[in-house]
Amino acid sequence: MRTRFAPSPTGPLHLGHAYSAMLAHDTARAAQGAFLLRLEDIDRSRARPRWEALIFEDLSWLGLSWPEPVIRQSARGAAYAQALARLEALGLTYPCACSRADIRAALAAPQEGAPVLGPDGVVYPGTCRKAPPARREGMAIRLHMRRALEHLGDVSALTFTETGPARAGTHRLQAEALIRGVGDVVLARPGWGTSYHLSVVVDDAAQEITHVIRGEDLFEATQIHRLLQALLGLPTPVYHHHRLIRDEAGKRLAKRDDARAISRYRAEGLSPDDIRRLVGLEREGGAGLGTQPSGCINSTS
Ligand code: GLU
Fold it and tell me: Contact 234/201 with Cβ under 8 angstroms?
């Protein structure tokens, strides 16, 4: 078993990250497997060395360890370019010149109906698919979903195993859901050379991750990841989407939620075991992928 924790160094880790990291770590350790750390720093405008340093500090303090060297996505451009070139060579991509405002305007057109919110934001109305723009350096590249599905044939044969408590079982890709509910996702953001979906799929394969353990908010994105694995000929790990840690009001924690930052609890004198208790992850017996401890954190301040 090989699991990973893949934070973006764009803010302090909070209780939700601690839960995710400890669950992935405990699960790997219980199976004598490996726990890997990967820094998802492709968004260069938001990634900061100080957040990266704090990630190492917080995770070490929590008692987690991982093999070196730690992969940084910012250093993996060649691998993403190769994957993108493969999809381009198959004729499954197209460049897109739309800004967010262009997309909003296109979706407001009377023939469009209500915008559909998918796992990658609003479903793209297809402006640049229908009228290809002149190609420029640094343009976004989108997946031509319909063509990708045609290329794969019967996608209902593509499945992934989910072991998370909310949706455990075998999930099958559905062409209609991918066209209407996901659409032409971005494979490369302008100036990035990649996107979250492309890089996560390429890196999970490169790191030979067998079990992806991450928050429930990413469950819907998994169909995109499964599709990209099929298109790129990459293996599919087992997925485990865990419950999200919420505040007293039931809201999920966000990066800017500094009140729940691990570093803050640390400064206030809490111990790593206190953090485990706060997120409902007691040490006895390890994590056990099937366990589902209580949902909310209690106020400590
Ligand atoms: N980098 C993502 C995040 O911080 C996690 C991606 C994943 O686990 O697939 O939310």
Answer: yes
